[in-house]
Specification:
Length: 189
């Protein structure tokens, strides 16, 4: 018999599985079409960063295994982040009919939606804790999320290429540090 957490985890795992599959399949598709792809390194780095985000989202859900009072609102709030992670993955590897595929052009065509969705997804990650116990969760986690939201706002507002290259590198560093500090090991039962 499944516990409530195990039952709830199924759909979260499926959505994250789709996010990872979409991202990896899109990356492989680009490699297969590499002779008709104009590569742009920030796109490739964001693919890696979003892959790490996808995996971290799934990993972090384990922290809810001891939560016993589930409501539809908490569950729905918990699903918003995997849904956002899927959409971010899909935006990075969206199909285009153009040949060659110009990843720089695609990046800047989608930047407002991508960075806006990234900010909304991170903001949505506060909701499960707010609904479950009225808090923002771990203080370091909450502060880091607020910083991530603020630091990605320029991605929506500016099309400055140097700024976007900086956001790309900083995004990867932040997610690596975030995982390293908060999620390096599963908490003991």
């Amino acid at each position: 018999m499944m516990t409530p957490f195990e039952h709830i985890s199924v759909l979260v795992s499926i959505v994250i599985g789709f996010a990872v599959t979409t991202l990896l399949a899109g990356a492989v598709r680009l490699v297969h079409r590499r002779s008709t792809v104009v590569w742009y390194w920030p796109s490739a780095v964001w693919m890696l960063t979003v892959l790490l985000i996808d995996i971290q989202v799934w990993w972090s859900r384990f922290g809810w295994r001891n939560h016993h009072t589930w409501t539809f609102a908490i569950y729905f709030a918990m699903l918003l982040v995997p849904i956002g992670a899927y959409a971010l993955s899909a935006l990075l590897v969206a199909e285009t009919d153009e040949s060659p595929i110009d990843l720089r052009k695609e990046y800047f065509a989608r930047r407002k939606v991508f960075f806006g969705l990234l900010m909304v997804t991170v903001a949505a990650s506060y909701l499960p804790d707010l609904l479950a116990d009225g808090s923002l969760g771990n203080r370091f986690d909450a502060a880091t999320k607020a910083g991530i939201i603020a630091l990605n706002l320029p991605g929506v507002l500016s099309d400055n290429e140097l700024l976007h290259k900086g956001l790309t590198v900083f995004g990867l560093i932040v997610i690596l540090a975030y995982i390293g500090v908060l999620f390096a090991a599963l908490p003991a039962a």
